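Entry type: protein chain
Record version: 2
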Amino acid sequence: GNINGTVFGAGYGEESQTTSTIVNIDNNVKDVYGGSFAGVTENATVNINSGTVSGTVYGAGEGSTSTTDLTTVNIKSNVVDAFGGSYAGFAGTTNVNLISGNVSGNIYGGGNQGITTTTNIFVTGGSINGTIYGAGYGETSETASTNVNIGISVGDVYGGSFAGSAGTTLINVNGSTENSDIYGAGEGSTS
């Protein structure tokens, strides 16, 4: 059935420690986190197989004390926004794969107000209505290195963040860029 609340792959609280999580979404849900609320997760995987995520997908956790070392988000159905990283926390290496389905909003390799070390985005199928950002969102988001790989026709692509900071950025385009504007850096006053 449908879940109107939030799904976490790992536990709750700063003392929570999880080695590995796999979240498989096959129904309609609101928000999804591969990691924990405020705790530590080593390896988190989120698979959006079917149904619709009406809110946001995060590969990592939520909260300023949440830490996730490695995240993978595989999108094969419909989501609004997707982040490889966390909401306000830390993520090490993130991977976002758009394989099929539709992202009606944006894809961010990094976090929402969070800190991320390395991001990887691979767009090989499906469709996206919004914008692709190699890094994160918000003035407090920080990303050291981004890698964006585009294999289909998409809209605008930024190697950096929306309003945050990003270090080294790389964009590889193997699809059509007829309707795209591609920027190596970010968007916004502090990017």
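Comment: DSSP finds no helices and 17 strands in the chain.
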